[in-house]
Amino acid sequence: MLTALIILWPALAALLVLLVKGDGARKIAFGAALVELVLGVWAWINFVPNGSTQFLLNEPWIANAGIMFKVGIDGISLLMVLLTVFLIPLIILSTAKHTYEKPSSFYALILFMQTGLLGVFTALDAFVFYFFWEVALIPIYFIAGMWGGENRVRVTFKFFIYTVFGSLFMLAAFVYLYFQTPGTHSSEEVAFYQLVLDAGTQSWLFWFLFIAFAIKMPVFPFHTWQPDTYTTAPAAGTMLLSGIMLKMGIYGALRWLLPVVPLGVSQWANVVLVLAIIGIIYGAIIAIRQQDMKRLVAFSSISHVGLIAAGLFTLNHHGLQGAMIQMLSHGVNVVGMFFIIDIIQSRTGTREIAAMGGITQNTPFLSVTFLVLLLGTVALPLTNGFVGEFLLLMGVYQYNAWMGAVAGLTIILGAVYMLRMFQRVMFGEKNEITQGFIDLTFNEKAVLVPLVVMVFWIGLHPNTFLMISEPAVLKLLDVIKR
Fold this sequence. Notes:
- This protein has 19 helices and two strands.
- By secondary structure, the chain is mainly alpha-helical.
- Strands 1-2 form a two-stranded antiparallel ribbon.
- Helix 5 runs antiparallel to helix 6 (152-180), helix 9 runs antiparallel to helix 10 (235-257) and helix 12 runs antiparallel to helix 17 (409-426).
- The longest helix has 32 residues, at 317-348.
- The chain is globular.
């Protein structure tokens, strides 16, 4: 029942938030998110990292068709659950300085989206997974479309079409796989894992599933919706998209692509790795050229996700464990970076790098937190980004030394665009728009301090999290290489 409570609590809280007017909606949403955080930590405390699925709920959903509402948590799921329940309260708290029209709808949509995300990360039935996959999309569509910036309708519609298009491919693959299961048919994860399909069938199924997950990550060349959507969405929407939602694509590939069609993966892994490495270099080079801070971080995310995707398709222990820890690290870092950009924009009225300068002179707290999150993003040793990128590069190098060498450029290029941005924004002489820049408020510190703590926690004690996922990752590798 714990898994069901974790999934349903945000939705129930969202219904309550819809009844509240004004600033009370944010306070209740934040309180509900804190309760969800407690539930996630309780699951962590009671979880035994042995590779098994725990806190299982398995009830008939569409009984005549053999479809069950089956959810549970293993080590891979738990890390994603913890990331979600940790970031959502901080994202809600980060909105304190903003005034939204219809705040009850805004915060209710965030909580509804949390239910969708947690459903995706705990689903053990293909159609339950697909259901929550779509549930998570609807709230962010309205958040970006109603509270976004210029051209929000056009940009959000493009994002919606892209993701729905991919979802239909995934649904078609799931329906086909369902009908291949013996007897009365089943859509349970374990039933799909046990299927024995020929290489030709697995080849086209691979692309049907990969397209859906690649769009959500996004991986080059399926990324074109991402920069505009990240830039146009309100700050909280951008944090939800980048910090948590893109992990749905990585998680989906890990859970429903690699073990279900391993022959298809072996056929096309080289192609995916090439696409991922192109994305690493392309995203970094475009980021270097950006003058808008938000677009810079959006393109840097394409580069970082490219490395995660490359590690995933190496099908080795280092690559998969690197992907797991880097999903956590990327979520922490990118939410912190987008929040700092939102703080700077709210103080200065612009995100243009060329318009900034001298901010660090009066802002010791902002300067330190900005620098820590930036160094985590560029994978400085002792920070969270180093652990993930080191394991991922080890995995890619084991797969192919030349690919590992090219993928390693992400560290150099990342340092170029991030340090360049920090230097131009924070150092130099003050100007008219940065003259009266004030340091972090209490609420802003309350958001950034937990993120900074996580940068060092993951960087200094990565085994806290790696030991959770390792048994499940090893078990998954056994299924893939069966």
